[in-house]
Design brief:
Blueprint lengths: L1 E8 L10 E12 L2 E7 L2 E7 L5 E2 L1 E6 L1 H8 L3 E14 L3 E2 L7 H4 L3 E8 L7 E6 L3 H6 E2 L4 E4 L8 H4 L5
Antiparallel strand pairs: 1-5, 1-10, 1-12, 2-3, 2-7, 3-4, 4-6, 7-9, 8-11, 9-10
Length: 165
């Protein structure tokens, strides 16, 4: 189960170049249900995602380079490429109005900051994955985050793949 929230950002975090990053290319074979292929540096995956905005099923299966290249030719729409920065949040802030278990309150989280290449530039999205929906709902984003777009399907990569420019 993938439980994540998505945000636009006001500004890039300081020292962005100090964080680990991945180069990602992904394409969609189908968008309902979502079936995606991804190249992440030199790793390759086929992913199935169920329906949902905050929480949904997700299954990743490994591919080899040849399979990825074969399926890439069959993809529909835009191929998405982006740089993903992995930014740890050692002590996340949570709303005092939502009770959390000790495990939920003491979790370390990670921001996946996606800086999209053309034709989607200047789009930048920050995603944070959570162990539970309760923790996701209690999360207070850092000051450099802007709008919460978790429930806006326009920001799903599968929908971006179908955007016409």
């Amino acid at each position: 189960m993938e439980i994540e929230r998505k945000f636009t950002i006001k500004e890039l975090p300081a020292r962005l170049d100090s964080y680990v990053f991945l180069r990602i290319e992904q394409a969609y074979l189908n968008t309902d249900p979502t079936i995606r292929i991804r190249k992440q540096d030199e790793e390759y995956y086929l992913t199935y995602k169920g329906k949902g905005l905050l929480a949904r099923e997700e299954y990743n299966l490994p591919l080899n380079k040849e399979s990825y290249e074969h399926l890439r030719k069959k993809a529909d729409g835009n191929i998405i490429s982006k740089t993903r920065y992995l930014i740890p949040i050692e002590k996340p802030d949570f709303s005092p109005d939502i009770p959390l278990s000790e495990q939920e309150a003491n979790v370390s989280l990670k921001i996946e900051l996606d800086i999209f290449d053309a034709p989607f530039r200047p789009l930048i999205i920050a995603e944070v994955e959570f162990p539970t929906e309760n923790a996701a709902n209690a999360f207070l984003p850092p000051a450099w985050f802007d709008e919460d777009v978790t429930r806006n399907p326009d920001y799903h990569n599968s929908n971006l793949s179908r955007r016409i420019f």
